[in-house]
Every structure is written in C-alpha cells, then in structure tokens.
Amino acid sequence: MSHSRRLSLEPAIDSSTSRRFRDSLTLQRHDDDVNKPDFRELDLGSPVSTLTPRVSSSSAAATPTSSSGSSGSVSGKPSVTSQMVKSHSGEISRSAMPTTTTRNLKPGHRRSSSTGTPLIFSGSSFYSGASQSSGATSAVSPSPTVLPAGNICPSGRILKTGMATRSSTRAETLWTGTGNYGHGNVVKSGGGSTGKTNHAVANGESLEELKRLGNDMYRRGSFTEALSFYDRAISLSPENASYRSNRAAALTALRRLGEAVKECLEAVRLDPSYSRAHQRLASLYLRLGEAENARRHLCFSGQCPDQADLQRLQTLEKHLRRCWEARKIGDWRTAVKETDAAIANGADSSPQLVACKAEALLRLNQIEESEFCLSCIPRLDHHQSQAKLFGMVAEAYVLCIQAQVDMALGRFENGVIKAERASMLDQTNPELVSVLNNVKMVAKARSRGNELFSSGRYSEASVAYGDGLKYDGSNSVLYCNRAACWYKLGLWEKSVEDCNQALKIHSGYIKALLRRAASYGKLGRWEDAVRDYEFVRRELPGDSEVAESLERAKTALSQESKSLGFNNEVEAVSSLDKFKNSVSLPGVSVFHFKSSSNRQCEEISPYVNTLCLRYPLVHFFMVDVEESLALAKAESIRKVPTFKMYKNGDKVKEMICPSHQFLEDSIKHFLL
C-alpha cells in the first residue's frame, strides 16, 4: 500500500534568505539579575538530518542549489553507491562509508552520512540540484524508495512511492517549529521524552520559543503567564537547568518561595556549576533566614559572591547571634529588637524568626501579641529544610513555640499535638524533649483537675491544678482554675490572689477578671468589684450577665456609701487626727491643700467639686492651710494649690498646681 502525505506549503527561500534563517538560529546566553529569568539558551541539536540522495561522481562536481526546506546545504562528495536502507531515526539513506565534508557545521545541526545533493521538485519530476546547476537538460529519475525531506511540491503533497515496504509503523510528523529546525523537516514520533518533544514539534512549540515567551511575560510583570510558559518548556525538556531556574524566578515573584527553593535545588542538581541558580538559591535562603544554607550557595567553589548579598548575609548572621545570646540570658526585649532588625534586613519570609519574636513576647507575658505574631508566619509549601535555629531544626522550633502559646491560651490538646510533632522532627534535641514532657504533664493535670471540679471535689481539684503549675509556673489558666476552687471553698482571699497572678501573666484574661470581681463582692470590696466589672463591660458590651453583675455591684456600693456617710461632697479636714483617719480609708482619697487668698486655688476649687460628683468612688477632702497651719506644716506644704493622693492608706502621688486634665487623668489612673 502506498502512503500519501499532506505537507504545509512553504514559499521558496533564496540563498540569502536561507543564510539569514541559519544565522537567526545561532543561540546566545543572556545574563540577568538574580530575580530575573535566565536567558542561557539550550543547544537542542537536530535529532534528524535532511534526507537527500547521493549522486554519482560525475554530478558531484557541480555546485548544489540550497533546498527550500533544509537548514543548510553541504557540498556533495564522491561516494560508493550502495543499497538503500532505513536509518534508526526514521530517515532513509544508503548504506555506505561516511563521506567527508569540507564545511564545519554549527553545533546542534547534525548531518547524517547520507547527506548529498538535494532534489528539487519541478513540475512532475525530481531533478538533481547538481545536474540543474551544471546545465543538464535531462531529468534524473530517483529511486522509488527515496523521499526528499524539506522539499515541498507545489500542491503541498509528496509523490506516492513504495513506502509500504517500511518495517516501522510509527507515524512521521512534519516539523513546523521556529527553533533549530527548518519548516518541513520530517521527524519520528513515538514514546518517551522524544515522543513529548515530537508532540511539541507537531504543535509548533519550540523549547527556546517557550522560554522566550516566558521571559517576555516575566519582564512585563505577568508572572503567572511566565510560569505557564516555563512549565511547558520543562515538560518538554525536564533536564534543562536554566528552565528550572527561570521557573524559580517566576515562583519567587509570586511569593511561592518554598517551591522556588525546590526548583533551584533541582537546577543545581542538574548543573552543579550553574552559578546563577546558586546565587538565586542563596538569595532565597536569605529571605528565609537560613544563614548557613545561604552561605553555602553564595560562596560555593569557583564563584565570586555578590557583595550586596554577602553584606546581607553577614548582617543576618550578626542579628541571629545576638538573638541567641539574648535568649540564653532571658533578655527578651533584646530578642524582640534583634528579630525585628533581622526581618527588616531582608529575612522577611522566615518562619523561625517570626517564632523567635513570638517566644520573646510570650515570655514578656504579651500573650495576645505573641499569638498574633504566630498568625503572621509565612506559609512555605514544598519546603522541608533541616536548617537549625538555637540548636533546633527550624520547623521543630516553630511548632514548639506554637505549642507553648496554645497552652498559655488554654488550648491544651492543640499544644500537645504540636509539641509531639516538633519532637518527631528533632528527636534528639533535649529542649524539645523537655517541652514535650512539660506540656503533657500540664495537660494531664488540667484534665484531672477539671474532672475533680466537676464532681464537686474542690479541694482535690485545687491540688491537681497546683501539680500542673509545678511544670509550668506561668500558665494563667491553671491559676484561674485554682481560684475557682478557692471560691467554691469560701477562701475568697486566696481566690483573689490566684486571679491576680493569672492577670499578671495574662492582663486581658476576662475569666480571671470576672472571678476576681465575684471574690471582691464576697469580701465586701464593692469598689474593686465595680472596677473589674466595668473593665469587662467595656470588653464585652453585649454580655447581659456582665451588665447585671455590674449593676448589682454598683447598688451594693451605693448602699455601703450611704452607711458610711458619703454625701458626694468635698469634705473639709482641719485636724491632724481627722487627716490620718481620712488617709486610712479604703480606696482612693484626694486631699486638696488650698488657701482662700490664692487666685489659683479659687480657680481650681469648682473643678474639684465637679470631679467629686463625677467619681463617687473617690474620697475628696479639702485642707485650708491658713486655718490648719499645724497640718500644713506636718505635711510640708510650701505652695498651693497642692494635691496629695492616697490609695488604701499609702501615698501614691503629689501634684503642685496641676492642670485640670492632668488632675483628672491621675485620678482615673489610680482608680482603675
């Protein structure tokens, strides 16, 4: 059976056009910045050569005419006539001793030994280019088993021949790409990587064309489109290091740093001496805060490191060293400062540095800030690094800090899970082993305490919570839970103490504030109870139970005030004994030392009366220094107006001629 082929029509190309076409195939390498794609071209090399028949020695003397479809012509040389056979690449050639050419071919343009004078189709016959150029008038009839490659009939078809005699069943396709091949070159399709390439050939996709398009998209800022082109190029040539490096550049621009690192590692695996990939990898590691990895790739053998990157690396190493020193001595404020400096220096995508700052904030009892810090940790997909920080694998360190923050916020189950994961990642680190043990013991104590509390065994529950505090003395949840036990047992002073400890660790702990307010109420300290309820009311404005508790506390305070004789007026004090009794009153007391003959005193006195009405929980007293000289002398009053503030019998502030705003701010400060 004969086979007919439909080929795309190609215009005739003169010799000068052919030369320009060949010159356009010369591949060059372009150097770019680290964050731009590489432009190192891949020398593809033609997997097949243009097929032309050999000619006799008489016709070989003539000069051949270039074929319109070939990528270049070669001068014919005398050769031995032999039987036509099929080559391994799917082309048809004569089995003969290889001939020697006098022309050096460009790299990537391989010619088979069958190369000779091309055939030119004219009308219905094939003519030898050599005979035609020598003025021969008779047609040379080609062998029926010979097909020209790259020579296209005017009709777009190749004449039918005895192709049924071929043993291969794989289809051949016509190359229409724009790379190192000319239009019309016949290549073999098939499986494997060659099959993928030939599939691209059939669809007109050139590897270097894909790379060029990707680079154009990158320059325009269309990083997603650039990534798509690089992906297609890699699917056709997965062993090309420059394509991998370019893909890493696009991923970096899209902030997919973990994937970018993976691509760079693959690039240096394929080409260990590829300096651009090493430089790009060092830059990525600097952003990830992995100084040791960055130094290894920045200063790898045979490469002169970029001075800007080297300076960034040295600065990062300095800040990491200071963080380590601050952490060892518990100087957490310095640790926060140094981590901020490292991040500002360029390590802006480092999970372990963010975790370091979160740890420092946790130790400073800024739990909400620590939790927020951890929520900002960048997510790095496909990045599994063995880089270390403070002697721990970086990923394990991050999980360790997350576990401790979860424990501080009462998320005990989550804390245990993360501590176990951290220990699995770095099983030999003693600090991680210790953290895991403490987390488990605290979670166990809390669970046991909750069970005992639920069954009404409050005393035993308090012991269980206390056992947990032996392993984590800064856990505000355990203090608050134990305060609940003391409240149930009627030990309200102890309840207040544990609530105070919990609030010292976690200042915004709502449950501890409510529990302390209730304990204050049991102790009859309604002023303190109102203060706590008002704080919670501001935090939870829609909570009806808090609003009701606040109203009850205010009512109780009002009744207590009436029983104590408070009339919401500034009370005059003239004797030293009454002054001492007034100072010892619970809560906040303000003493206004004045003189009726002083203009400033007369101006501020009405404002003091206003403050007395505005803050009924504060005791306001007035001392006329002209009428109570002994008292003024005992208190060393040398200038008026002078204000002295006392809280629960202790002097907390003294002000001379204060402004209205400063006086009120001071009262609010000590009242809250």
Automatic annotation (TrEMBL):
<dbReference type="InterPro" id="IPR011990">
    <property type="entry name" value="TPR-like_helical_dom_sf"/>
</dbReference>
<keyword id="KW-0802">TPR repeat</keyword>
<feature type="compositionally biased region" description="Low complexity">
    <location>
        <begin position="53"/>
        <end position="82"/>
    </location>
</feature>
<keyword id="KW-0677">Repeat</keyword>
<protein>
    <recommendedName>
        <fullName>Thioredoxin domain-containing protein</fullName>
    </recommendedName>
</protein>
<dbReference type="GO" id="GO:0005737">
    <property type="term" value="C:cytoplasm"/>
</dbReference>
<dbReference type="Pfam" id="PF13432">
    <property type="entry name" value="TPR_16"/>
</dbReference>
<dbReference type="InterPro" id="IPR044534">
    <property type="entry name" value="TTL1-4"/>
</dbReference>
<feature type="compositionally biased region" description="Polar residues">
    <location>
        <begin position="83"/>
        <end position="104"/>
    </location>
</feature>
<feature type="region of interest" description="Disordered">
    <location>
        <begin position="27"/>
        <end position="118"/>
    </location>
</feature>
<feature type="domain" description="Thioredoxin">
    <location>
        <begin position="577"/>
        <end position="660"/>
    </location>
</feature>
<dbReference type="InterPro" id="IPR019734">
    <property type="entry name" value="TPR_rpt"/>
</dbReference>
<dbReference type="InterPro" id="IPR036249">
    <property type="entry name" value="Thioredoxin-like_sf"/>
</dbReference>
<feature type="region of interest" description="Disordered">
    <location>
        <begin position="1"/>
        <end position="20"/>
    </location>
</feature>
<dbReference type="GO" id="GO:0006950">
    <property type="term" value="P:response to stress"/>
</dbReference>
<feature type="repeat" description="TPR">
    <location>
        <begin position="207"/>
        <end position="240"/>
    </location>
</feature>
<dbReference type="InterPro" id="IPR013766">
    <property type="entry name" value="Thioredoxin_domain"/>
</dbReference>
<feature type="compositionally biased region" description="Basic and acidic residues">
    <location>
        <begin position="27"/>
        <end position="43"/>
    </location>
</feature>
<dbReference type="Pfam" id="PF00085">
    <property type="entry name" value="Thioredoxin"/>
</dbReference>
